[in-house]
Description:
- By secondary structure, the chain is mainly β.
- It has one domain (2-89).
- The protein is 0% helix and 41% strand.
- It is built from no helices and 10 strands.
- The chain has strands at 2-3, 10-12, 18-19, 26-27, 32-37, 43-48, 53-58, 66-71, 80-81, 88-89.
- Strands 5-6-7-8 form a 4-stranded antiparallel sheet, with no helix packed on it. A two-stranded antiparallel sheet has the order 1-2. It has a two-stranded antiparallel sheet with strand order 3-4.
- A hairpin with a 5-residue loop joins strand 5 and strand 6 (43-48).
Amino acid sequence: TIMDGETLEPKQIVSTRGMTVDKQEYHPEPRVAAIIASHEWPEFIVNVKETGKVMLVNYQDIKNLTITTIDAAPFLHDGGWDSTHRYFMT
């Protein structure tokens, strides 16, 4: 959920539902391991554990979010930026 910073009113809800990496079973509520803000772009990086997905959520236009999904390894955990803030490692 993307919320208004002052009122905490929900502005947009983004689903993380999907198929699990290992058994390809539908998972209605996969856990989010990390949400990290980009230092360069109006974008959040979201690690979704059970689905093994990394979501790049561009929030420049809150009403029309652009989401790029990248397949990754199962059991994603937290991550962090390299010293240049150009690369995110998870």
